[in-house]
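We recall that each integer encodes one residue's backbone shape. We quote one record:
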Amino acid sequence: MPKKLDFTKHAADRMVERNVEPSEVEDVIRSPEICTPGKGGKTNLWKTVGGRRLRVTILETSTKIKVITVVSPDEEA
């Protein structure tokens, strides 16, 4: 059985702010193009989805994947 996705309030807020759908986040998590280590045991997953690059930062436990934040670096000022 796949692990449950748990979105932090911060991640949910960033998704709304950046017009990112949950299905896009799931796509990044399911098949990232690049994985880089983050701080505190977190992992940064990168993928181009719908013509824009997304970075999803997660913290994975034995039972769930906690989505910490969602960023579209190319759109950041």
